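Ops channel
N.P.: pipeline sanity check, posting one input/output pair.
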């Protein structure tokens, strides 16, 4: 087989680049994907009860970039959806990110008022402050109490479950994803554009890849076929350390086990996701119909159980944001530089970056715009 581009992986990184190369450059692309479906970790499907579920964990689209939102309009309509998360703290379900409503629910009225006033005086209103910043920079005894309380009850155990590390042993950007929010806005994200693809993510990818210049080969590791395919350049979206046969050692990732549970109940929980920082071995439960808006009898929800990643046994869902691993990644980046005329490395695994979907799309579009073709 003869193509212009061999793309490894049919997730957002591989599919956006395939779509751009075919539609804008009119060149031939072969995507080789080792799973039995397109869409990477964003893949969704109907379960045996007819409920649309996300096989690799809940995916909610959000971005502040008009260009990304605009680009994806071509492939799907969006259902407007604002994700909400409640965390179980001291036996109560309170908004996460932890905000003024959370502390009002947890503390006596007079004390909640005092904490709110002090937070606003120190940081301002409608401001997001990472927990590690508050812990480091707070002398006031009330704010100190609050920071310790939130650290212990919201972040410490959840982070240990998710990463087997304490918050301070990860890059600060990890816990900064879910800051303390000095506001009464209970949404999980405040991005300008938020939503779910009307017919699901897999349908979005089908539309993206429907160009006749794009062929997709599923159930195939690229190593099985790379020798048989004539291609000018490759785009690789899998784990960068695996591409280089682990010459510098293995990059660590975190994996997850998912437990899908179907219930006859019309609705299982009050909001899309409930976080359990302190109870159970799973981190959170997410009820899909609350995200997708699907009307159906019964409901399906998912529990997420963090796991170590073991090559060939489970899936590397999360690169681990920590400087020592970043340093190891840079050794692979140096290898990648040497072959950049032939192979480009793009995406969450290939760049060892804790990217959200919109960041992967943005980065793939940037790579496309810089292609020297
Ligand atoms: P992937 O989707 O991982 O695609 C890479 C593909 O390459 C895979 O399909 C893989 O099978 C294939 N591949 C790898 N090696 C080979 C090989 N040797 N041969 C052939 N194929 C290969 N982002 C958000 O914006 N919002 C969310 O709510 C959100 N929730 C998430 C929840 C979970 C549990 C997880 C794990 C991630 C979540 N994300 C979310 C992040 C999102 O999944 C990623 O940003 C995005 O899917 C990354 O796309 P990608 O193309 O880089 O990688
Ligand atoms: N986090 C936490 N408690 C929570 C929510 C998040 O400790 O209730 C921390 C935890 O370290 C987590 C990180 O913040 O891994 C990022 O959370 P996010 O919800 O963004 O994770 P993702 O959806 O990517 O798994």
């Amino acid at each position: 087989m003869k193509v212009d581009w061999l793309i490894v992986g049919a997730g957002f990184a591989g599919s956006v680049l395939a779509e751009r190369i075919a539609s804008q450059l009119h060149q031939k692309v072969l995507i080789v994907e080792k799973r039995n479906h397109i869409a990477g970790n964003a893949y969704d499907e109907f379960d045996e009860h007819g409920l649309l579920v996300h096989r690799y964990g809940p995916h909610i689209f959000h971005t502040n970039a008009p260009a990304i939102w605009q680009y994806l309009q071509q492939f799907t309509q969006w259902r407007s959806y604002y994700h909400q998360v409640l965390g179980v703290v001291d036996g109560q379900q309170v908004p996460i990110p932890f905000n003024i409503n959370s502390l009002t629910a947890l503390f006596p009225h007079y004390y909640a008022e005092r904490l709110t006033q002090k937070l606003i005086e120190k940081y301002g209103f409608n401001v997001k402050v990472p927990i590690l910043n508050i812990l480091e920079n707070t002398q006031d005894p009330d704010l100190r109490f609050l920071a310790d309380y939130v650290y212990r009850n919201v972040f410490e155990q959840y982070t240990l479950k998710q990463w087997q590390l304490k918050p301070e042993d990860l890059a600060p950007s990890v816990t900064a994803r879910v800051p303390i929010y000095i506001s009464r806005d209970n949404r999980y994200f405040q991005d300008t554009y938020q939503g779910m693809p009307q017919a699901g993510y897999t349908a979005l990818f089908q539309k993206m890849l429907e160009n006749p210049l794009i062929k997709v080969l599923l159930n195939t590791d690229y190593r099985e076929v790379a020798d048989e395919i004539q291609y000018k350049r490759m785009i690789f979206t899998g784990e960068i350390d695996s591409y280089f046969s682990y010459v510098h050692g293995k990059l660590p990732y975190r994996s997850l086990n998912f437990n899908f549970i179907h219930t006859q109940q019309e609705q299982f929980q009050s909001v899309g996701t409930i976080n359990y920082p302190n109870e159970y071995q799973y981190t959170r439960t997410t009820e899909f119909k609350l995200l997708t808006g699907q009307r159906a009898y019964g409901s399906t929800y998912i529990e997420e159980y963090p796991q170590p990643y073991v090559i060939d046994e489970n899936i590397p869902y999360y690169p681990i944001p920590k400087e020592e691993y970043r340093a190891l990644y840079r050794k692979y980046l140096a290898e990648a530089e040497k072959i950049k005329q032939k192979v480009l490395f793009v995406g969450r695994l290939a760049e060892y970056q804790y990217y959200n979907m919109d960041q992967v799309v943005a980065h793939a579009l940037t790579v496309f715009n810089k292609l020297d073709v």
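N.P.: looks fine end to end. The pocket of uridine-5'-diphosphate (ligand 2) is lined by residues 87, 96, 154-155, 158-159, 162, 174-175, 177-178, 275, 277 (CB under 6 Å).
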